[in-house]
Design goal:
8-stranded parallel barrel; Immunoglobulin-like; alpha/beta; 14% helix; 10 helices; 4 domains
Length: 756
């Protein structure tokens, strides 16, 4: 975004102009989808990981998305440094995406090289002050190999300022700002707004609440592109496509408030699907302060918006009383969660000191911990260079090219690496799909809450330690406090642990200006740890009650058998199925088939079995140390027939009055054209496990309402989205964040939705 816009636009209280897991492009665009993997904070694939946002299409053979949605905003890091960070930090810690600087060639001034040079493009070539086109593409590939998506800052509202005399660029482009000529694109004077349509002869914006002036005049003398022109739209979309075709997964759209919504929709409609499938994630810089057509909500049709109000309100509460955050959400004047790209700060807000920054000390870290723990929007973590003055250059060589980032000195603030914040990314991923529960506060500056039964956090923003017995919602066990320790590959905790008792309570001391965070996917401490009593007595039966047959019975073909097992566990435990036939491990625990905890406490998997075959099976639990616990009693027995579903409970015990499955009725309001049909797809096996080819078809009998009933495991959480398939097999996903739902112990659930 351009320089000093805050001072030029007094009605926009935050400052400059503004710009994933996450919004949409035009009406058909949707957040870039992520494959259902479980790469969490430890950097290892753990069973029971939360299923992420859906991934549409065929993944690259070399890599797949890691499933996270947290964005690391690496402000003006060069391409080599971004690539290294993806490999060593962002991928292992579970960040879903990295936001990178504008990649286009930009103006190069004589003498000083302020940060905003890159926000004055002069060509759509990809040689810039951050590195060469080859380095850019290598960075994208490296980040993809680490499971991390790449979102590029896209400057498409304008080119360089007409008040600039330099004709030099970092990529060697030929241009003249005063003459409105950009030969490498090419653009000429007719490709920019003049007067008219701008009502002011000097092309300046005098009324920041006037739609025509804001969207047709020049923002701080920056040459405003005529985005109504089909030619200009084609050049902009061509630039975006050059990045998408290089692997870029989405865009932060700079100065989006200054582009008419219809123009933006047209441009985005021309942008290709991403290489990892689906539409690019779009999040737009829209500073609040105006109403009507200039309000942030007016831009939601083209994607998410950067949530500046979120950052301002966080600062207010962390400088006041964080107990107020109990109701933090849309009622505070925020955009809807699925349209909000939330943040603690960014480069504009940090240099203007309008939000919390690294200068705020512990409050800055605690605000990030809250952001990652709270169930709202797509969160960002900002890491950039330290501003001494508002027009500073990032660390660069004599020619202005940005040098490699060094997080060990005082020039850069690498917030994404902060142990507690980085580990909260794994916490955030584990908590996906779970609502806030078990809220506690002391009426002042100490709060605690859980996200369902998967994660819990306590935050102390006061000047004195707080000791309290908290209701965590977690199962009994000894948990690693990820704010102060890492979980090793062997499952040990390098820091302190907290014991949760059989009733889900834990007594903990939270130091002043500090936090404690626990989550179910972090394996518990295995050495020198406190212990908690087991909630039930382990069964005495360990081997199966019968021996496996000497040879498998004859069969004809392979069928799909789904196993659903209702089993509560403690941290580090995972559930497997093992049985009498080779596809179920031939009774060998080492070959048992793992079940997914996506619908916890119901664990599920689908296995290919020989058709029309009788078999026996049991469920086992393995802990982090490799210990195996068999369920007791007689073996389960079944016949695979032509495939089906087996719903079981551990030891055959009652699930306290619950049934093993619940009927969920999905109804979606969607107008379509001839040849289109609507489907629902989601995280549960019965919803296709995010595979569009396995999506559930909805009936058009009540058109424009499309409906279908699906049987899902009882007492389980799930995420879902609606898709449209046309006669050619093309798939269009609805935009925004995944929808979420839960099943109860019995009965049915009705979900009534409208296409977004």
């Amino acid at each position: 975004m351009p320089k000093l816009i805050r001072h030029a636009a007094p009605d926009e209280s935050a400052g400059p102009d503004e710009a994933g897991p996450a919004g949409a492009g035009p009406a058909r665009s949707a957040r870039a989808r992520r494959a259902p993997l479980g790469l969490l904070a430890t950097g290892v694939l753990l069973a029971g990981a939360v299923l992420p946002i859906a991934f549409q299409g065929t993944a690259q053979a070399a890599a797949t998305p890691n499933g996270g949605d947290v964005i690391a905003n690496l402000f003006e890091w060069n391409w080599n440094s971004v690539a290294a960070e993806c490999t060593t930090v962002l991928g292992p810690k579970g960040y879903g995406a990295v936001q990178v600087a504008p990649p286009a060639d930009s103006i190069k001034l004589n003498g000083a090289h302020p940060w905003w040079e890159v926000y004055q493009p002069v060509s759509y070539g990809l040689n810039s002050r951050m590195g060469t086109e080859a380095q850019f593409k290598a960075m994208v590939t490296t980040c993809h190999n680490a499971g991390v998506k790449v979102y590029a800052d896209a400057v498409i509202n304008h080119t360089a300022g007409v008040n600039q005399s330099s004709t030099s660029s970092y990529g060697g482009a030929s241009f003249s700002p005063t003459g409105y000529t950009y030969n490498n694109i090419p653009y000429s004077r007719s490709d920019f707004h003049g007067s008219p349509p701008c009502p002011n002869a000097d092309l300046s914006i005098n009324d920041w609440n006037n739609v025509t002036q804001v969207q047709e005049c020049q923002l701080l003398s920056l040459s405003d592109l005529n985005t109504e022109s089909d030619y200009v739209r084609g050049k902009i979309s061509g630039y975006l496509n050059s990045m998408v075709d290089s692997g870029v997964d989405g865009f932060r759209v700079d100065a989006a408030k200054h582009i008419a919504q219809a123009d933006m929709a047209n441009i985005l409609s021309r942008v290709h699907d991403t290489t990892w499938g689906g539409r690019p994630y779009i999040y737009q810089e829209i500073f609040p302060g105006s109403g009507g057509q200039l309000a942030p909500s007016a831009f939601e049709g083209n994607g998410s918006v950067l949530e500046f109000t979120y950052a301002y309100k966080l600062k207010d509460q962390f400088n006041g009383n964080i107990a107020n955050l109990k109701t933090f959400g849309q009622s505070w004047g925020l955009e809807p969660s699925d349209k909000s790209a939330v943040m603690v700060t960014n480069h504009d807000l940090e240099r203007d000191q309008t939000t919390l920054t690294y200068n705020s000390g512990a409050k800055y870290n605690l605000a990030h911990i809250f952001e990652l723990a709270w169930n709202y929007g797509t969160p960002q973590v900002y890491s950039g260079f330290r501003f001494a003055n508002k027009d500073d250059s990032p660390p660069a060589d004599a020619n202005g090219y940005v040098t490699d980032v060094n997080c060990s000195n005082s020039t850069w603030t690498c917030t994404d690496r902060n142990q507690g914040i980085a580990n909260m990314v794994g916490w955030h991923n584990a908590a996906r799909g779970q609502s806030v529960a078990n809220w506690w506060d002391n009426g002042g500056n100490a709060i605690a809450f859980s996200r369902g039964s998967r994660a819990w956090v306590a935050i102390n923003n006061s000047a004195a330690a707080v000791t309290q017995t908290f209701t965590t919602g977690l199962a009994a066990g000894a948990y690693c406090d990820v704010i102060h320790g890492d979980v090793t590959a062997a499952g040990a905790c390098t820091g302190t642990t907290v014991t949760v008792d059989a009733s889900g309570k834990a007594t903990a001391t939270v130091a002043a200006g500090d936090a404690v965070a626990l989550y179910a996917q972090a394996p518990p401490c295995t050495t020198d740890c406190p212990t908690a009593p087991p909630t039930t007595t382990p069964p005495t039966t360990t081997p199966p009650t019968t021996q496996p047959p000497t040879s498998p019975p004859p069969s004809s073909g392979t069928v799909s058998e789904t196993f659903n097992e209702y089993r509560t566990t403690v941290t580090g435990q995972n559930v497997f199925v093992v049985g009498s036939i080779p596809a179920l491990g031939s009774w060998a625990p080492g070959s048992a088939v793992p079940l997914s905890s996506a619908g916890y406490p119901t664990w599920s998997t689908t296995v290919g079995l020989p058709a029309n075959t009788a078999f026996e099976y049991k469920y086992i639990v393995k802990d982090a140390a490799g210990n195996v616990t068999w369920e007791s009693g007689a073996n389960h027995s079944a016949d695979s027939g032509s495939g089906g579903t087996l719903n079981d409970t551990w030891n055959g015990a009652s699930t306290t009055g619950t049934s093993t499955s619940v009927n969920v009725d999905f109804t979606e309001n969607k107008t379509t054209v001839y040849g289109q049909n609507v489907f629902v797809v989601g995280s549960a096996t019965a919803l296709g496990s995010w595979d569009p080819t396995a999506a559930v078809a909805l009936s058009s009998a009540g058109y424009p309402n499309w409906s279908a009933g699906v049987t899902l495991p009882a007492n389980s959480a799930f995420e879902y989205k609606y898709i449209v398939k046309d006669a050619a097999g093309n798939v269009t996903w609805e935009s925004g964040a995944n929808r979420s739902g839960t099943t109860g112990a019995s009965g049915s659930v009705s979900l009534n939705d409208t296409w977004k």
